[in-house]
């Protein structure tokens, strides 16, 4: 029992840290099967995302990556297998029960999926407005989130006035309101220029390293993998967030890679092992030829 | 899937969606302000076209029927004929068709583009049920405004008929309105309000269903809009036939 371990180690330095809850994975798939008509989208998929871990899901288009995210949110239901969120079996949940689970999860969509008819402020505040919170509680929260994504100036703009990268960042702010402990990214950097893509990855790293958020990061861009698997966010003496490369001081263990091909997991592990994998498809994916 | 199976499946899905949306109204959270905003868009927004359609339909009815009635020496009954045709049949159906064209298409296009740009998924991910937030207010707004619009169209139609009969054929205004009053019964008016209520449900459900089930990007939005308008118009006209017969059965045979 995990609780037992921490009691036994009473004299150790970390004895006061009760992390028994951390052994429950944030997200778990067990033998999940999903088919659309005759096409097999996910074939007996099993994996876990532990607390505070970022799972990067790589793979070509149509490989079933985004489907995984929709299954976590209950937007789709599996044909077979079980889906767990925070230790809770959500496979059979109906829409009303699922609404409660979704409150724990933030979701960043491919193109941002902002509500066109609402301003940036109302988009970010959406979840809080739906919960019926008074405006004086909503506003500071919205400003805090927009500061996090560095977009406080755009608060009164409409989504149509924003650039692609800004829309994506507002999407992140909207997903993070209410401080969810699970965040799902669906190709958040697709179609963005490299510096903006880097900014998005930095936000994901900040969440992972400073906010203890578990996440699934679906992407097909290799530079995302480089950033997320080799850098980490720390707060320096001046109180600023800086990004350092892993090396002698620290080795990143909270980012795992999973590669999908035609509904199957063809690789699961660390990025170092991925780079050494001999599978021809993986090598082609990594090198681009 | 063949046409019949697909149609039955769509009928089932549409009915379930509407039942869930309307059922949600009794449980909350309710979106009253959304419904009122939709009433403004759907009801107030459609006012001009409905008033114009009503006026000229009434006018043309008078223009077409006066000569025939005059042939039998019954021109004094023009008002009765115009009013009865409008209240029982043309008012509800024409209003429903105009609203389908204007509002049904707008609903399907709006929900359709929200679907293809993942805004519906985002809404669900943020813990809101789109059926309650989007579908229910639109159907409720239609249920409230379509009967009101129909009544207005009827009134404008009678006014149009009166205008045509008096100014073109020299019928006296009092003659016209006396025959209107003699012609219309309470049952006609009841039927004329029950029908648009049913049509509102049909238009709202079909437009929302087609919008929420849009697939295939912007082309899909266009396709969904077209299908919504075509399906809703046809279903309105077909159901009108059955409603007319059912109302005769329920309210009794009209005597005039």
**Percent of residues of chain B in helical segments?**
over 70%
Oligomer description: heterodimer
| Molecular shape of chain B | elongated
- Output the structural class of chain A: alpha/beta
Largest sheet of chain B, in brief, is: none
What is the CATH T-level topology of the largest domain in chain A?
Answer: Rossmann fold
Total number of distinct structural domains of chain A: 2
Strand content of chain A: 15-25%
Element order, helices and strands of chain A?
A: HEEEHEEHEHHHEHEHEEEEHH
What is the global morphology of chain A? globular
Largest sheet of chain A: 6 strands, mixed
Measured by DSSP, the beta-strand proportion of chain B falls in: under 5%
Mean pLDDT of chain B: 91
The stretches of 5 or more residues of chain B where confidence is low (pLDDT under 50) are none
Q: Which chain pair shows the most residues in contact?
A: A-B, 22 and 14 residues
Distance between the amino and carboxyl termini of chain B: 47 Å
CATH hierarchy class name of the largest domain in chain A:
Alpha Beta
What does this molecule look like?
- The complex is a heterodimer of chains A (289) and B (256).
- The radius of gyration of chain A is 20 Å and the shape is globular.
- In chain A, strand 7, helix 7 and strand 8 (214-218) form a beta-alpha-beta unit.
- Chain A contains ten helices and twelve strands.
- Chain A has two domains: 2-90 and 182-287, P-loop containing nucleotide triphosphate hydrolases (Rossmann fold, 3-Layer(aba) Sandwich); 105-179, no CATH class.
- The longest helix of chain A is centred in the C-terminal third of the chain and has 17 residues, at 194-210.
- By secondary structure, chain A is an alpha/beta fold.
- Chain A has helices at residues 2-8, 65-73, 95-102, 120-130, 135-148, 164-176, 194-210, 222-230, 271-276, 280-287; strands spanning 27-36, 39-49, 54-59, 80-85, 88-89, 105-108, 182-186, 214-218, 231-235, 241-245, 255-261, 264-269.
- The model of chain A is unreliable at 1-12 (pLDDT under 50).
- The N and C termini of chain A lie far apart (48 Å).
- Chain B has 256 residues and is mainly alpha-helical.
- Chain B has one domain.
- In chain B, 87% of the residues lie in helices and 0% in strands.
- Chain B contains eight helices and no strands.
- Chain B has helices spanning 3-25, 32-71, 78-116, 119-125, 130-169, 173-183, 186-212, 217-251.
- The longest helix of chain B has 40 residues, at 32-71.
- The N and C termini of chain B lie far apart (47 Å).
